[in-house]
Amino acid sequence: MHQEPTLIKARELFDHLIHNLFETAQREASLYDVEKLIWRSLLELGRLLLQFFIQSQGTGDLGPVLDSKGRTLNRLKTLYFRRYVTIFGEIQIPRTVYGTRENQKHEVVPLDARLGLPDSDFSSMLQDWAQGFCVHGSYQEASKILLKILGFTPSVRSLEHMACQMADTVDSFWETLEAPPAPEEGNIVVITADGKGVPMWKEADAGKEKEGHRRGKGEKAGSKKQACVGVFYTIDAFPRTAEDVVQECLRHQAREDRPSPCHKRVRAELSHQVDGQEVNGKDAIFAWFQDECKQRNADGSKPVVCLMDGDLALWKKLQEYMPGIIGILDLFHVLERLWTASYCFHREGSQAAQDFVTERLRSILNGQVGRVLGGLKQMATKHELRGTKLKQLQAIITYLDNHREWMRYDYYLALGYPIGSGVVEGACRHFVKDRMELSGMRWKPKGAQAILDLRATYINDDWQTFQRYRIKTNEQKLYPYRQQINDQWPQAA
Question: With DSSP H G I counted as helix, E B as strand and the rest as coil, what are the percentages for the chain, rounded to 5?
Answer without folding.
Answer: 55, 15, 30
